[in-house]
Design brief:
Chain lengths: 259, 259
């Protein structure tokens, strides 16, 4: 099966999951639990959307491995073979508090390289799709490459708590930009970079399911996507990420390297 | 003319201005100038949309005064009589860099009290309207009152630069919330509070045209809207604003009063 054919199939799942998520917003009695703290939530919809994707993958690709935020995963100790990475709802706090500004994401990696990826901006009904060698699309429109530009010509997505808790370098970085914008969903922040609405996204440590889908798309679009030290991302562990056009990326990495 | 009749008329202007703004986004050669610095921009559309509103107001209400961001204003030394307050594009930096996340706003004040107000979320094609005594609407739907709740149960909109540059109180405030979200448009941040997507919006000093429209709507919806010291807003000068439900507002004001 070609990557394109896998993407066609997976797009149907993503659309169906989006329908379920939009319908769920009228559910007045959604079950919500705290995970690590009051801003780290999980709902019954996180679990049921993940189960939905897992069922589809098991049905069509019984030999592929699965790595999901809500705990559905095979024993994965390296990135060899085919691995699906699922974040059923990215931005669950927004899903609960805002009923918007969340997304649903899946990606397929082959031997450590992203080959198919989806980020569904559910409320705007925009499905972003990356297919290795074919580009990145918003619905039917192919995204254009981002012109290289400096961080002082653009906006940045970065967590306020990260800026206040971390070093002077992070504050200097923020002051070098035109301003901060923050949606509160890693997937949607990455979409902002992919569509050049912000010039960079800088994070503290994120898990594979938060970043794999944007990582695939950013790479396909020619953006730089590394750890804050400029190293290759390792999806088997947590990573603090910098994603940006190559020029802005280099500027940001250089700052962090001075620390 | 009743407030309702004025609102019906002004809604047509707001709709027409929204059409012009959406059309302008395909203009590849938009003229952009810096005002005070690289993140404070004005475009030819700011000026032409303001001129459009001014023309409509002068035609229908020749005796009303006008106060506009782009310099169209009568000699206003007090808030007596009828005063229109215009922000043709709120979030001009987003308009230029993101082609989204901006709004267009006008409000009418009578003897210092907001009586009619519009915030047009142009890209989402959502027009928010407040009419004194009649409530606040998103298109045809009336907004519901916000349940009183604590800042630690919600998100906050606050500028990252403000958090990094100001006192420990501001950082403590941020840490008391579930997280920060920031669109980069005062009008749209206020819409987030009015629709309970964030629980509070806290600003540094803003001008009348940035806040008057949200001030009218927040008051109509029963939210608290004051300076950071808890004092009444004075639209003849700049104000650092706190807008929130009464409980969260009191918590925030109490923090700033300790400074």
């Amino acid at each position: 099966m070609t990557y394109g054919a896998i993407a066609e199939l997976a797009k149907q799942w993503v659309e169906e999951a989006g329908d379920l998520l939009r319908e769920s917003l009228s559910n007045q009695s959604l079950k919500i639990e705290e995970k690590t703290n009051a801003s780290d939530l999980v709902t019954e919809m996180d679990r049921s959307i993940e189960a939905f994707f897992v069922e589809k993958i098991r049905e069509h690709f019984p030999h592929h491995k699965i790595f999901g935020e809500e705990g559905t995963y095979d024993d994965i100790t390296d990135m060899s073979g085919f691995i699906w990475i699922i974040d059923p709802i990215d931005g669950t706090l927004n899903y609960v508090k805002q009923k918007s500004n969340f997304c649903s994401m899946i990606a397929l990696f082959e031997d450590g390289e992203g080959v198919v990826s989806f980020i569904n901006d559910v409320i705007n009904n925009d499905i972003y799709m990356g297919v290795k060698g074919h580009g990145v699309f918003r619905n039917d429109d192919q995204l254009k490459p981002i012109p290289d530009h400096s961080i002082n010509e653009g906006l940045i997505a970065i967590s306020t708590k990260m800026v206040t808790k971390e070093t002077a370098i992070t504050q200097e970085l923020v002051n070098d930009t035109l301003g901060v914008r923050l949606i509160g969903s890693a997937g949607l922040e990455m979409i902002q970079v992919l569509t050049n609405r912000v010039s960079a996204y800088v994070t503290n440590e994120l898990n594979a399911w938060d970043i794999a889908q944007g990582y695939m798309m950013a790479t396909e679009l020619g953006l730089s996507f590394t750890t804050r030290e400029g190293k290759a991302v390792n999806l088997l562990t947590k990573n603090p990420i910098v994603v940006a056009n190559p020029k802005a990326h280099q500027e940001i990495i250089s700052k962090f390297m001075k620390e």
